[in-house]
Amino acid sequence: MWSRSKRVISMLVLLLLSVGVLGALAVGQVYERSETLYVGGAAWGPASTWNPFQPGSLANTTGTLGLVYETLFNYDPLTNVMIPWLAESGEWVSDNVYEVTLRDGLTWSDGAPLTADDVVFTMNLADQYEALWFAPMWEYLVNVINIGDLIVQFNFTSEPLYQEFDNNLYNIPIVPKHLWEDRSEEDITIGANENPIGSGAYLYDTHASDRNVWVRNENWWAIDALGLYPAPKRIVDIRYSSNNVALGSVIMGELDLSNHFLPGVAGLSDNNVVTTYFDGAPYMLSANTAVLFLNTTIAPMDDAVFREALAYAINVDDIVNVAYAQLVAAASPTGLLPSLSDYVDEDVVVELGWTYDPAMAAQILADAGYVDVNGDGYVEAPDGSAIALEVTCPSGWTDWMAAIAVISDSCKAAGINVEDVTPDYGAWNTQMQTGTFNMTLNNWAALSNTPWTLYNLLFRHPIQAQMQSGNFGRYDNQEIFDLVDALAAIPTSDIAAMKAACADIQRVLLSEVPMIPLWYNGMWAQYSDAVWTNWPVDGDNTPSRLPTTWSGYWQLGGLMMLCELEPAE
Amino acid sequence: MRRYFGRKLLIYLVTFFLAVTIDWLIPRLTPGDPIQNMLARAALNANAAETMYTYYTHAFRLDLPIWQQYLNFWNALFHGDLGISTYLFPTPVADVIKDAVPYDIFLLLPAILLSWWAGNKFGAFAARTKRLDNTALPIAYLLTATPYMWLGILLAWLFGIILGWFPIAGAYSYTMGTELSWTFVGSVLHHWFLPFASLFIIFFGGWAIGMRNMIIYELEADYSHYLEALGAPRKLIRKYAFRNAILPQITGLALQLGVIVAGALVTEVVFSYPGIGYLILAAIQNQDYFLVQGCFLFIIMGVLLANFLIDIAYVIVDPRTRKGMVGE
Q: What is the mean pLDDT of residues B141-161?
């Protein structure tokens, strides 16, 4: 028995060892490492659709838009310039006619030519099917016609929404008519579109539940036309299920570009373990504004004075330095990203803006009659009723959880009773959309070419039972709704008029404080120099592109980053 | 015999019905709306939101009365239709699970069986050796009390990042596609080892402790002393003790299965192993009713099937059960 057990155990050990050794010996390379770029942080679930019309992160397949399907224009948020892409040029020939001239010699990856016919077909799909995200454009679009093979003419009603249309120009993917015209409505709007055929720099290679693989399109039209050639032959987009794995993989040099939020990257960047866009704080470019929405239908947040006191009470510095360990920057009270700082009216900010100032908050509260009547350390409303509010964010979003803890602490220090609460994502989302929250964080305005994108989120109207895409606090003020509508209808070339409209909006935003812009969430990106170099970094003679693989951002600089990468050594 | 299994089968059917009903009900009781969550991730920038909400709510039949949804659910289930995932729209849940489940089985089956077998052997062995009992058992206690996630991260850090012996993520190398080659098989095993080891180590500790205690108990039982008094060889007594001690361990295996599966899910997240672990987490967070149902349906069926097999095993190893059935 003795010897038998011993034999059993030694057998077991041997078995385990042999499995390990067998594994260790048998690893071979299939994709050449020096030609392959490993990225992560865009996908959070297995790839489920390659339909370019499935917007945002719904697709989980970053690259469908940008690498495979292309847009008429690209946009560089760092320089605020629209870059002609499939279009060679585009101009308003009159107030309501826009003409796009396509490049000559564009091709689909199956060899067929890409012509004005395809563009017209794509635009008309949204006229036909209202389930496509860009269908609302047709409310002010009369028709889209082609003049020859290269010219597309958009004819608008008398009131085109210039701001939205410009945004659409770099977001609507052009699809091949010859492969899509026979598809059913369901296939077009929600079909998975396996084996996508586009016009872009990469082709679909393969996918598994934890990865998507793209391979370079050696016949890409821009190789000749623009002299662009993406350095990596293959892009392997890895879906990690936890951030610690992503961090480990970057440190080991197995993951070249991580677009995950990794707390503590500041230290790793300082020690040159990873590279980030900036050398020092905030390390990351800004991607969107984290806004604290206040439910203005609930007392005391229906009182602008109380909301202003809140704005002074919140310690944004602590959010930046403690909650984020310096990976983000504090936001302008106007909420506009640094790339849109031209549209910030500094006079309004100086006159009406706020900074963290608990004494000021206390003063405002006291002047308005918010005083601590019952001696519990927190103020009561002027009518004597107790104030007990909750600030929420989804459970598990650790950076936001730390941020709302700071908000709660600093409000309490200023005498306002605010507790931080973290419901599940689903519950949080429902509370937000049905208006059953007190205060909550939201950052759904994507990096954009126009300040209208943010203000459309903040002042979405009309107020409905379910607010699905903005104005969650149900701030009801026709004056500002009209101002935002006016901004939407200003041509993007009329910078002066846009500035004036923004100044009007900001005057209301800062004096009424319907919501509080707090900080800029980062475009999380940390790179390893082990295999690829020449990453985007801040500096004069360095590539300055958005270092991101997020879905919907390839045409905002991600693709150019690929063209500028260089193999190490 | 037939009556024994008939009764068992009836119990399993009732359990299955109740478990699946709860599986259907629980996601619907949580606050929130799956279609809203799905559309929120689409970050719609225009008036499309309202239209799309109605469109999808109807497409997923979530606008029907709740009892109708329940009946439809059973009807679809019997036709092998698990619905469409909202989180991974428009992939059918059956496809999602079909891709993920082989990895779960590949990870769990060896870990459970090997750890059970090795843990029992080791526990029985340790119970007889004072020195081993004093040194190895405290370690086993430590192991079995270790959180899955913590041990996983520790192993990944030590063997992955520090020593670099094993990869820390994925089911096979990110440098290759699926193919049938020795390199691929090697890569699969290489990636499998750490998640497997972290499960094995924790399970192993639990079984070893259980067995060790049972053996000591059985060796002190009257029949052991009686055998000893009759002058039976020590080896024979131990053999009887082991056969008796193994019975509670088999029951334990059946009872533990649910907990074990839960632990495996956490381990999969830590190692980015593409089983259903992460899927369940994401499905619950996004209130993907259909994916939650599908994943738990798999777990329910797995646990019930395993319990059924254990019932059969019990008949084989415990003569008393056999006797009871024949004596009817």
A: 87
Which residues have a Cβ under 8 Å from the Cβ of B75 and sit 6 or more positions away? none
pLDDT class for B47, splitting at 50, 70, 90?
Answer: low
Is the CB of B90 less than 8 angstroms away from the CB of A57? no
Q: What 3-state DSSP class applies to B114?
A: helix
pLDDT tens by residue, A224-268: 999 999 999 999 999 888 787 888 888 888 899 999 998 889 999
Q: Which of A480-489, A534-543, B228-237 is modeled with the greatest confidence?
A: A480-489
Contact A211 B190 (CB under 8 A): no
Order of strands across the sheet that contains A151-156: A87-94, A97-102, A151-156, A141-147
Least confident of A22-26, A431-435, B17-21, B239-243: A22-26
**Are B169 and A466 in contact (CB < 8 Å)?**
no
Q: How many domains does chain B have?
A: 1
Q: Where in chain A is the domain with CATH 3.10.105.10?
A: 286-522
Partner B contacted by A463 (CB < 8 A): no
| Option in B33, B99, B235 nearest A430 (CB) | B33
Which regions of chain A carry the CATH code 3.40.190.10?
A: 33-42+203-283+538-567
The residue segments making up the domain with residue B140 are: 100-288
Q: pLDDT tier at A24 (50, 70, 90 boundaries)?
A: very low
User: B262, B270 in Cβ contact below 8 A?
Assistant: no
Within a domain: residue B308?
A: no
Q: B55 or A440, which is more confident?
A: A440
The domain defined by A56-190 folds into: Dipeptide-binding Protein; domain 1 (3.90.76)
Query: What CATH number has the domain bearing residue B139?
Result: 1.10.3720
Identify all chain B residues contacting A396, using CB atoms and an 8 Å cutoff: 285
Is the ipTM of this structure higher than 0.90? no
At A117 the pLDDT is 95
Query: Is A552 in contact with A446 (CB distance < 8 Å)?
Result: yes
pLDDT single digits (tens) B264-282: 888 888 888 888 888 888 8
Q: Which of A27, A293, A422 to mutate to test the interface with B (most CBs of B within 10 A)?
A: A27
Report whether B222 contacts B130 (CB < 8 A).
Answer: no
The CATH number of the domain covering residues in A286-522: 3.10.105.10
pLDDT of residue A242: 79
Which of A22, A211, A239 shows the shortest C-beta gap to B186? A22
Buried b (16+ CB within 10 A) or exposed e, B273-295: bbbbbbbbbbbbbbbbbbbbbbb
Q: Within a domain: residue B182?
A: yes
Interchain CB distance below 8 Å, A30 and B183: yes
Q: What fold is seen in the domain A33-42+203-283+538-567? A: D-Maltodextrin-Binding Protein; domain 2 (3.40.190)
B168 with A245: Cβ contact below 8 A = yes
For residue B197, tell me if it sits in a domain. Answer: yes
Contact B85, B27 (CB under 8 A): no
Look at residue B36 and tell me if it is in a domain.
no
